[in-house]
């Protein structure tokens, strides 16, 4: 038996057939049950583990339909509209579901109907039953009020006035029912009878494109999985070409014989639909996850889905029939590295609207970096050329400026004569500057230390090494704090 705490008492939440044969029931106190049968075994309920198990079963049911939703703590909704013919019809599909669950060790009750409400009632009160369209009222009429999926308080109120079955509620006038028991009662009744639509909200997004392969013999080797990925990608290519799109995110689903499901996703920097390239990306991903994927007794269903797609830009080939794309090799290299090491393995620097050096560049994932979609504009020949030389920046910019000691300067606002950095003294032979960079007053308060004015100098020492350092603050200013010196980068 499974117990749970209800207020200050332990009560039975679930029990097996042997416990039911001992005349034990749900919500009975554990103390009363032990008084009747001292030898019973009681296990504390674990709602989180039950939830994970139910979600795992929902993932496994994705082999029948992508529209799988959770129903409370012990049920699933499957929208199999348009899917039953793939399994030989409704009865064959239902028998296959029940058989597979039975071999996995689950005692499952299933119902199939045209409405979710009728299917829910058939599964929980009639067992294995298929309800034809138009027979919902005949199904619900003899069932108790719980078959309408209404609150326990509403059921108690209905039973107090003599309405003990769903048929009695359907025969009663609607207006008094709505006034006394609320609109939810009629809503549930109309949904079960098909008068109002009730959608099943899937727990996972539905892929716009998917291809799958059912296997007569389960596979366990990674090489076989990669070979199937290439075959499925070739099938996807035709669908993507017809839509004029390429895949940006793909997911590989491996359904194990015993019910476990492995999901492997990859992302691409550019829209992709070439089977060979898709197979190479999944090769890298499978190599990285080889220790984490447990094939068990093998996978009997493999599915490749396109989760997100984008427009595929066709490129003009040259006279030799080759397409020249300078960024294709870099994008493929980045995708392979990301597939093996993760999304944060390859970053790209992008310019940011800030004149402070440490904020002028940000690193973002390679797939999120903007790409030029139009060729650069050609300069106007009639317009006089205007050349603007940007200020020189060091090859290596430190993540955070490092403080240095400056014993003396040639003049208060000039460059230092020498400085000490990391316990070493450097003698300055040449200097350029200053380049003044003021604070971003719209982002930081003037009182902050980082908001002070900076004077940058390009410095060369006696050994020919060049540095980029700055003085923070001004001499003779209103602040009583003396200026400080920092080293921000090195040129060579």
What is the distance, rounded to the nearest whole angstrom, between the alpha carbons of the first and last residues? 73 Å
- List the uncertain runs: none
The pLDDT mean sits at: 86
> Helix count, per DSSP?
13
Name the structural class: alpha+beta
Strand order within the widest beta sheet: 14-19-18-17-16-15
Largest sheet: 6 strands, antiparallel
Q: Roughly how much helix do the residues carry, as a percent range?
A: 25-40%
**Rg calc:** 35 Å
Question: What gross morphology would you assign?
Answer: elongated
Strand composition percent: 25-35%
Task: Walk me through this protein's architecture.
The chain has 13 helices and 19 strands. A six-stranded antiparallel sheet has the order 14-19-18-17-16-15, with no helix packed on it. The protein has helices spanning 17-21, 30-36, 47-60, 90-103, 116-125, 136-140, 152-160, 166-171, 174-181, 183-193, 222-243, 275-288, 328-341, and strands at 2-6, 9-14, 43-44, 68-71, 75-78, 111-112, 129-130, 209-219, 245-256, 261-272, 299-311, 347-351, 361-365, 396-404, 418-421, 424-437, 454-461, 466-472, 484-490. The mean pLDDT is 86. Helix 9 (174-181) packs across helix 10 and helix 11 (222-243) packs antiparallel against helix 12. With 492 residues, the protein is of the alpha+beta class. Monomer. It catalyses: DNA(n) + a 2'-deoxyribonucleoside 5'-triphosphate = DNA(n+1) + diphosphate. It is an enzyme of class 2 (transferase). Keywords: DNA damage.
């Amino acid at each position: 038996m499974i117990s749970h705490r209800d207020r200050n008492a332990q009560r039975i939440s679930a029990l097996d057939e042997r416990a039911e044969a001992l005349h034990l029931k749900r919500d009975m106190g554990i103390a009363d049950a032990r008084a009747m049968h001292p030898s019973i075994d009681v296990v504390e309920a674990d709602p989180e583990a039950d939830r994970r198990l139910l979600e795992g079963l929902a993932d496994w049911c994705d082999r029948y339909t992508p529209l799988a939703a959770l129903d409370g703590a012990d049920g699933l909704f499957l929208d199999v509209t348009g899917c039953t013919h793939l399994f030989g019809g409704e009865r064959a599909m239902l028998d296959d579901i029940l058989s597979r669950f039975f071999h996995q060790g689950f005692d499952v009750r299933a119902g199939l109907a045209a409405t979710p409400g009728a299917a829910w009632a058939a599964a929980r009160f009639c067992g294995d039953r298929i309800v034809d369209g138009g027979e919902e009222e005949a199904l619900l009429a003899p069932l108790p009020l719980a078959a309408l999926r209404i609150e326990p308080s509403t059921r108690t109120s209905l039973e107090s006035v003599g309405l003990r079955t769903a048929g009695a509620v359907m025969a009663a006038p609607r207006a008094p029912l709505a006034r006394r028991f609320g609109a939810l009662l009629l809503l549930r009744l109309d949904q079960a009878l098909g008068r109002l639509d009730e959608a099943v909200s899937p727990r996972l997004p539905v892929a716009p494109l998917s291809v799958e392969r059912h296997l007569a013999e389960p596979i366990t080797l990674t090489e076989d999985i990669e070979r199937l990925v290439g075959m499925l990608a070739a099938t996807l290519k035709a669908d993507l070409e017809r839509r004029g799109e390429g895949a940006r995110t793909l997911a590989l689903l491996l359904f194990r014989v015993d019910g476990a499901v492995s999901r492997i996703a990859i992302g691409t920097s550019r829209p992709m639909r070439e089977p060979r390239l898709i197979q190479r990306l999944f090769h890298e991903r499978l190599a990285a996850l080889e220790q984490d994927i447990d094939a068990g007794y093998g996978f009997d269903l493999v599915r490749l889905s396109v989760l997100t797609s984008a427009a595929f830009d066709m490129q003009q080939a040259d006279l030799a029939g080759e397409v020249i794309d300078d960024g294709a090799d870099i994008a493929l290299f980045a995708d392979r590295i990301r597939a093996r090491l993760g999304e944060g393995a390859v970053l790209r620097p992008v310019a940011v609207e800030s004149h402070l050096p440490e904020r002028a560049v940000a690193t973002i994932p390679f797939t999120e970096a903007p790409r030029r979609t139009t060729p650069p504009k050609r300069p106007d020949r009639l317009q006089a050329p205007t050349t603007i030389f940007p200020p020189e920046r060091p090859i290596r910019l430190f993540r955070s400026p490092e403080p240095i000691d400056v014993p003396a300067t040639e003049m208060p606002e000039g460059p230092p004569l020498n400085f000490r950095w990391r316990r070493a003294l450097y003698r300055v032979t040449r200097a350029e500057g200053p380049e003044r960079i003021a604070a971003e007053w719209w982002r930081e308060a003037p009182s902050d230390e980082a908001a002070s004015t900076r004077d940058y100098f390009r410095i060369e020492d006696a050994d020919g090494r060049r540095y980029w350092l700055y003085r923070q603050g001004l001499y003779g200013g209103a602040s009583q704090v003396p200026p400080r010196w920092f080293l921000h980068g090195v040129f060579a």
